[in-house]
Structure formats: C-alpha cells, structure tokens
Write a structure and sequence with these properties.
It is found in: Cytoplasm. This protein is α/β, with parallel strands linked by helices. It contains eleven helices and ten strands. The chain has three domains: 109 residues, Cobalt-precorrin-4 Transmethylase, domain 1; 103 residues, Tetrapyrrole methylase, C-terminal domain (Methyltransferase, Cobalt-precorrin-4 Transmethylase, Domain 2, 2-Layer Sandwich); 40 residues, no CATH class. Strands 3-2-4-1-5 form a five-stranded parallel sheet, with helices on both faces. A five-stranded mixed sheet has the order 6-7-10-8-9. The relative contact order is 0.11.
C-alpha cells in the first residue's frame, strides 16, 4: 500500500532529519536553527558534539542519544515520544544524518508507525566533493567507506570496477594509502579527486591520477572524500545511437560537441570525421 506524506499539510508528529555543518559553522542554515529550536527533542549521534553546536546557536532543546550501539532501544523510545505528540530532530556529528551515519533503521520504523519524516537541507561532504572534483557528476554512485580488511575491500572494488558511474568513497587518513593502492591495482590508474577537510581552514582538493595522488598521500591528514572517475567503455564498435548518447553524456559533463566527438572516436577507434558527419546528420 502506498505511503503518501504531504509534509506541510498534516499535523502528525514529525521526525526531522537535520543536516549540520561539516566543519564551518557559517553553513548552518536558518531553517535548521529554527527546527532545532522548535522541536521537543533532539536525537544526536554524540550528545557532547551536538551540545557544542547547540550552544553556538543558543539552542536549548533537550538532547538525547541515538547511535549504533543503542539504536534498537533508542528507536522504541523515539517512537513512544512521537506517539505522545512530540516532534523530534535527528542529527549526526556532521553533515546529513543517515549518510554513513545512524538513522536508516529509525526512519523506516517511523514511516511504518505512520509519522512524518522530513529532511532539512544542509551540508553534505559527498556533494561538496563531487561538484568541485572536476570529474563527471552524472551519474554517480556513493559507496561510503570500503572495508578496512584487504580481502573484503578487494572484493568490493572488483564488483565496482565495471560500473559506468563516478564513484565516491569516504576514507580515514590512517587507511587512505592502503585504500588508494587497492583502487590502483583493481580499478586501474583512473583520474580521481581527493577532497579533505571540506569547508574548514585547511580544505584541499588533490586532482590527478591515483598514482599521482599516492605520491603525496602520506603528507595529508583529515577526513577525506575520494571521487573516482567511471570506467571507460570497451572500445568495440557500437551502434550509432549509443555513440550519440555517449557524445551527449560528455557534452553534459562540459565538453564541446567537437571535443566529445573526438573523445568518443578515439575510444572506439573510428574515424572522427565520419562520426562528426553521423552525429550532425551530414551524411
């Protein structure tokens, strides 16, 4: 049965998913401040971190803990609060809740219980890194953290290697070198962008091949997002309709039609002039 929620046209209690700054407090939105002031309870991944944020904006709303280690117990408590008519905001330590952070199970329970789930827009390290990467933004796949174990990490990368999507990973500084070496071995020496310390004083983007970034990776610290270009299509001759679609994709990524035609012709090992005439209907 369809679940149809009209967020601003009902009076049901609401779970708000409130994005918070990923480093720069100036990116806290007016609506986020308003919601955190108005709700009855704030459920936080780490109440100590969240209290610092609340104090910065003079928000005095009561804060409770909701994290992976108390998730099942916390869910039942939050559902009970909603049943009592209270509105609740869920926040993670930084950025959007549920993106590599707790909350997915809670959201499903809240929906099943018949209450509203409403997102409150704000910072997202995934999107920040993607749009500034210089790598094609559509389509993309957000993977999150690869497993720290080499075997599981290798298996995951093998499953991802042939996908025609830009892929985005999170990684910790003490694991970044091993992660990139695995990417180099399995994905090949692709173009990447490593974004670190996003929105903070030491924000930095390292754009180049995986091997080039590996040369300096031991110098960098901070939380990291790695944007990896999609796999190249196999260079077999493919139908003209597919070639036209590929050219249009490169144009959507910022290339001129001339450069896109040149790139596709080179990939497929065919005549650039013939492809130009076919694309523009000059034959």
């Amino acid at each position: 049965m369809i679940n149809r929620q009209k967020s601003f046209h009902n009076t049901a209690p609401t779970l708000y998913l409130v994005a918070t700054p990923i480093g720069n407090l100036k990116e806290m939105t007016p609506r986020a401040i308003e919601i955190l002031n108005e709700v009855d309870i704030i459920a936080a991944e780490d109440t100590r971190n969240t209290m610092k944020l609340l104090q910065a904006f003079d928000i005095t709303t009561r804060c409770i803990s909701h994290h992976l280690h108390n998730e099942n117990e916390s869910i039942h408590g939050i559902i009970k609060l909603l049943e009592e008519g209270k509105d609740i905001a869920l926040v993670s330590d930084a950025g959007y809740p549920l993106i590599s952070d707790p909350g997915e199970k809670l959201v499903n329970y809240v929906i099943e219980a018949g209450f509203n789930v409403v997102p409150v827009s704000g910072s997202s390290a995934v999107l920040n890194a993607l749009v500034a990467s210089g790598i094609c933004t559509q389509p993309f796949l957000f993977y999150g953290f690869l497993d720290s174990g080499e075997g599981k990490r290798t298996k995951a990368l093998i499953e991802l290697k042939d996908l025609p999507y830009t892929i985005i990973f999170y990684e910790a500084p003490h694991r970044i070198e091993k992660m990139l070496k695995s990417c180099l071995e399995i994905l090949g020496n692709r173009q990447i962008c490593l974004a670190r310390e996003l929105t903070k004083k030491y924000e930095e983007f390292l754009r180049g091949t995986i091997s080039e970034v590996l040369e300096v990776v031991d110098e960098i610290k901070g939380e990291m997002v790695v944007v990896v270009e999609a796999t190249e299509k196999e260079k077999d001759i493919i139908p003209l309709s597919v070639l036209r679609e590929k050219i249009d994709q490169y144009v959507d990524c910022g290339l001129s039609s001339k450069d896109a035609i040149k790139k596709v012709a080179k990939e497929q090992g065919i005549s650039r002039n013939d492809l130009y005439r076919d694309y523009h209907g000059l034959n």
